[in-house]
Amino acid sequence: MVEEKTDGLKQLFVYEHDASRLELFVRIVYGWICIGIVLVVYGIIAEICMLIQWFVILILGRRSEGLSNFIKGYLDYFVHVLSYYYFMTDDRPGILPTPVRIYEKR
Predict the structure, then answer these.
(1) For residue 47, what pLDDT is reported?
(2) Cα–Cα distance between 91 and 79 in angstroms, integer?
(3) Are 87 and 31 in contact (CB under 8 A)?
(4) What are 29-70's pLDDT values in tens digits?
(5) C-alpha span between 27 and 30 (Å, rounded)
(6) Residue 43's CB: how many other CB atoms inside 10 A?
């Protein structure tokens, strides 16, 4: 696996030449069904939080930190599982969301 690590950071979307045929079939159950169900349920709840956040901003003129953290958690999990979900790696992410931090290089 080719990955770039800098100061404890791991690049998520890196080309990997080798791929396991067995993992390709495991991915159908693990990735598309298990992770897919978690993403759908988590996404629906995150959408509800976004709607509530919209009203909070409209009424109070500020954001709710709890709602923002929940929505951020969904986005972090979604990006974290993308490389597995879209066949870029055979490294399985956890089914349940784990704390991940995503940074933008400037």
Answers:
(1) 98
(2) 14
(3) no
(4) 888 888 999 999 999 999 999 999 999 999 999 999 999 999
(5) 5
(6) 14
Whether the pLDDT of residue 83 is over 70: the answer is: yes
User: Nearest Cα to 85, choosing from 32, 14, 37?
Assistant: 32
Distances (CA, A) of 44 to 38, 39, 40, 47: 10, 8, 6, 5
Contact of 78 with 102, CB cutoff 8 Å = no
Report DSSP letters for 33-65, one per residue: IIIHHHHHHHHHHHHHHHHHHHHHHHHHSS--H
Amino acid present at 26: V
Per-domain residue ranges of the chain: 34-91
> Looking at residues 66-84, what average pLDDT do you find?
92
Cα–Cα dist 12/4, whole Å: 9
